[in-house]
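Exercise 7. Predict the structure of Hydroxyphenylacetyl-CoA thioesterase PaaI from Nocardioides cavernae.
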Amino acid sequence: MPDAAPPDATFEQARAMWAADAASAALGMRLVEIGPGEARVSMVVRPDMVNGHDLCHGGLIASLADSAFALACNSRGPVTVAAGFEVDFLEPARRGQVLDAHAREVALRGRSGLYDVTVRVEGTVVAEFRGRSRSLAPRT
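Solution. The predicted structure, encoded as tokens:
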């Protein structure tokens, strides 16, 4: 049986995906760390990210969680996309605060995966996100 590819080679595929992610870059997201089935991404809440209540727009919190989810589910190599997600907002985030999203693999069965992402500000949980992934069949 041939040796499996070293983890760094797999992470390079996820990092290449991240480097081409214009949406995450435009929002100022930063890759903090990546490991097998997990990733951490951070983002500063800018003035153009707040809603009419002067709080971080929920869609942007969900976008941060989705980006961490994408990195975690692509960390194992196969091209993987979101099949869906749900998010619960628990606390508000405000301009100038740094959001930290930590994605963790919960289950991986065949081509389907389940991931939890916790978004925090200074240790306080702001949102909980659950994502469902699907690995794409290799192109022939």
